[in-house]
Amino acid sequence: MTAAADRESIGKRLVIRPDLGWHLLDLRDLWRYHELVLFLMWRDISVRYKQTVLGAAWAIIQPFFTMVVFSVFFGRLAGVPSDGLPYPVWSYCALLPWQLFAFSLTEAGNSLVANQNLITKVYFPRLAIPLAATLAGLFDFAIAFIVLLVLMVYYGIKPTAAVWLLPLLLAIALAAALGAGLWCAALNVQYRDVRYALPFLAQIWLFLTPIAYPSSLVPAAWRWLYGLNPMVGVVEGFRWSLLGLGEAPVTLMLLASASSLVLLVTGVLFFERMERSFADVI
Amino acid sequence: MSEPVISVRRLGKRYRLGAGGPRYKTLRDSLAQAFRPRRWMADQPSGLNEAALLWALREVSFDVSTGEVVGVIGRNGAGKSTLLKILTRITPPTEGEVELCGRVGSLLEVGTGFHPELTGRENIYLNGAVLGMLRREVQARFDEIVDFAEIERFIDTPVKHYSSGMYMRLAFAVAAHLEPEILLVDEVLAVGDTEFQKKCLGKMDAVARTGRTVLFVSHNMAAIQQLCSRGVVLEQGHLTFDGSVEAAINYYVAANRGLSTLSALDARPDRQGNGSLRFTQVRLTDDLGRPIELILSGQNTRFIFQYEAPQALAEARVNIAFNVSNSRGILLTNLNSKDAGRMLMPIGRAGQFECCWPKFNLRAGQYTCTLFCEINGVIADWIQSAFSFTVEDGDYFGTGSLIERSQGDVLVDYEWSYQLEEQA
User: What is the dihedral sign for C-alpha B374, B378, B383, B385?
Assistant: First the structure.
């Protein structure tokens, strides 16, 4: 008998009952499967660029060429202001967390449907799937981050002392992506419309985030509403801590933390509410 | 009696039928019903008519104690898979509850979570994690798993390049090494070649021997008979029998008597012959005359052919024959009264011929028969594919040994002996 089986079985009785509506996340159960989350994440990452010629270079190509297009059309032709910084590095710095967010959101939203063979055949906390899909986005982020460092060296920009806030900003972006992703994933099980709505949602969200334009363009009266988009605070935070742009966007970052937390909590609650019916409906 | 490790209490599971609504709802559908109460759950009955609901399981209760090996027997759709899905927590019950004591492992569908792009080695770890194993547990058994699956050479090849046999072997190997206290098995015997099936059965036997609890679902009566000590029978979602495995199998076979083996022939237009006799019905019974629906190999079986004739004959030379083809259309044998030396028979206005086939010696499968009758040298009635019957593997040899699949259709009563040429 294995140690793990012993540990789990001693005095452990599991009772299976009909679904009784809302319940809280069983963190212990999720922790028991933390290795599964890591394995799924590792699978998502290692499979993503299999049978491609460029491989992980895609993680750089996407944000980089988006940046080039933005620089040419918005920066050069449209003359969009970039807070006094070189447009390329200014927009790339925002594209980084944005790509992480958009990618994680899309992947998480489609993750349950993509893994239906797992859901209908094996038990594990279903949260593991969108969670792994969200976290797998960090790999691409890390690769694309290198390009930012190169750009910063090229333009001679030094990061500020506030760089230590980056992990926190990343956490906010991931929490927002996971929260929205959980909503989408759970809805996607029943309504496949979500699959088509997701890219659209990501596109709209992109324009609601100050990536191609500075947030200073938004009228001050509407800032608070604008700031409810957690990615506004994240993007401004990135520019402030990495590129040393202006004042610390404290209000925006606090708003972002709050709204991403709300997204995450409601997402988890909704997901848990739907979780047990997934195998029957998917 | 020790504490039960599985305790099922008045378990029920209700599904909505496809007819009640589309399986995949779209947002547009939902908008159309925006003013009706929302129904998120698959099994919330509010506002649904009862006809659209199906109870896959209802009022099922039983206990299983440590070390018991229980066979779950039932026809397709009897609720066997639903029961296993609830026990493995894949789907929640609608009512009742289950208490489980110990880690549950399932061989429901082997190979779930395999990714074609990943190598055998990577998939072993991934699949292990999916099945709830820790990394170091997989590590500790890694060689054993590879050995069991017989894929040493291909362990670092992506599984998309595997043959389906290799794929299934690897998948089963991972699941088989999970070592849970409670093992749920669903028809894994259909996996792989004969050699490997034997290995799997051996593994399950070994699991059972170490005092762990096994719940085994199968259509293979011989396997159930060999592995299980106790059997429960599910019929249309209800548990209708619980007892020793022999009694359960007997009950199952008896319960399936007379359901649909009656093949009515009077309406068949596709027949030849002059009509001096016409078959009206075929049925199967056991040697006590009780109707049966499926034949267990090894069972004494009677084929009864009812007929009508326009005029009675006091004595006629009757050659009544039926031949048996397997599901691949290969003719296996012909049973006729001429060869059996029984030709002179009276014919009534109505009557029946009976053919006794002792110790039925065909393997599990579906067989089709052509029926033929010749009276005084003239074909009276001849119906191609007149009827078919189903055979399931039984304990043909009376030794409890499992009849291997894919080793032909026919079973033969034989004995082995030996002689020594030279004494040591």
Answer: positive
pLDDT digits (tens, 9 = 90+) for A43-95: 888 888 887 888 888 888 989 999 999 999 998 898 888 888 899 999 999 99
Question: Which CATH number characterizes residue B358's domain?
Answer: 2.70.50.60
Residue A2 in this model has a pLDDT that exceeds 70: no
Q: Whole domain around residue B195: which residue ranges? A: 4-23+41-255
CA-CA distance, B408 to B424, in Å (whole number)? Answer: 38
pLDDT higher at A176 or B287: A176
Q: Residue B32 pLDDT more than 60?
A: no
The answer to whether residues B287 and B302 touch, using CB atoms and an 8 Å cutoff, is yes
The CA–CA distances, whole Å, from A273 to A21, A266, A278, B38 equal 6, 10, 10, 14
pLDDT-wise least confident of B29-33, B191-195, B238-242: B29-33
Total of domains in chain A: 1
- Give contacts of B3 with chain A, Cβ < 8 Å: none
Give, for B53, the enclosing helix (H) or strand (E): strand B53-65
- Both structure tokens of A212: 């191609």
User: Does any domain span residue A280?
Assistant: no
Provide the CATH number for the domain around residue B115: 3.40.50.300
Whether residues B113 and A118 touch (CB distance < 8 A) is answered with yes
Residues of the domain holding A111: 24-275
pLDDT tens track for A178-201: 999 999 999 999 888 899 999 999
Residues of A in contact with B97 (CB under 8 A): 15-18
Same domain, B201 and B156: yes
Q: Is residue B379 part of a domain?
A: yes
- From residue A8, alpha-carbon distances to A21, A28, B88, B142 in Å are 27, 12, 16, 22
Taking only the tens place, the pLDDT of each residue in A101-144 is 999 999 999 999 998 888 888 888 899 999 999 999 999 999 99
Closest CB from A36, A50, A51 relative to B130: A36
Q: Give a yes or no: residue B412 inside a domain.
A: no
Given a cut of 50, whether residue B43 has pLDDT beyond it is no
Residues of chain B with Cβ-Cβ distance to A50 below 8 Å are 117
Tell me, yes or no, whether B248 and B112 share the same domain. yes
Find the residue in B nearest to A186 (Cα).
B40
